[in-house]
Amino acid sequence: MSELFNVYCDESCHLEGDNIPVMVLGAVWCPQAISGKIARDIRAIQVKHGLKADFEIKWTKISLGKQAFYCEIVDYFFSHPDLHFRGLVVPDKSKLKHGEFAQDHNLFYYKMFFYVLRNILENGNCYHIYLDIKDTLGREKIDDLKKVLHNAHYDFDRKAIENIQHVRSYEMAQLQLTDLFIGALAYVHRGLNTNAGKLAVIDRIKQRSGKSLIYSTLPSERKFNVFVWEAS
Going from the N-terminus, what domains does the chain have, and what CATH number goes with each? Predict the structure, then answer.
C-alpha cells in the first residue's frame, strides 16, 4: 500500500566561489502522518533545555552551553524508527571539470541532489519534497530539479513526487535536523576541530550511527546514509 513521505532537503557550502572546498547536500525524511508529532517532540526537548519552543536548530548555533541539547536531539533522531537521513559530500569542488561534462556548477548541483533523492524515493510511495530557501532563485531551482529528475528517466516528478516546494528552515523542525547533520559532515570533511561543542555532537553522531562520517556507507543503509562523491 502506498505511503506518503515528507523529504526535507538542505545544502551547505554549495556555492562555486565560496572558497570552501567541501560541498554537502542532504535530506531527512519521515512519513507525513507523523511529521507533526515529530515536530512537537522536538519542541518539547527544546523547552526541557530552557530554550524557546520556536528556537531554530542550526549547526552554526552549537556551543558548549547547548551541547547537551544538541546531543539529545541526535539521540532523538537515532531512537525514532521513522526518521532517516542521507547526506552527499563533494570533498573538493576545485577538482570539478564542468566543461568536460557539458554542465555548469548549477547543473552539477541539481545532479548531486538527484543522487541524494534517488536512494530515498521508492516505487509505490509518494513524496512531498521541501527545499530550504536561501536565495532569490526559488521557482527556478524547483523547475531545474524537476528537469534533472525527469531527464534521469525515473519519472519521479510526475508520479512519485506529488509536490516540491521551498520553505524557510525555521518553519520545519525536520529541515533543521537536516541542517544539523549536513553541518556535521561539512565540519568533519573540512578537517575543523576548534569548537568543542560541535566535536561533542559529532562524536555522538558517530557513536549512535556506528559510522566514521568520512567514508560512504553501504547504499542500502537506511538510517544514516552517507555518500562521498568522488570526481572521476
Answer: 4-228 (3.30.420.10)
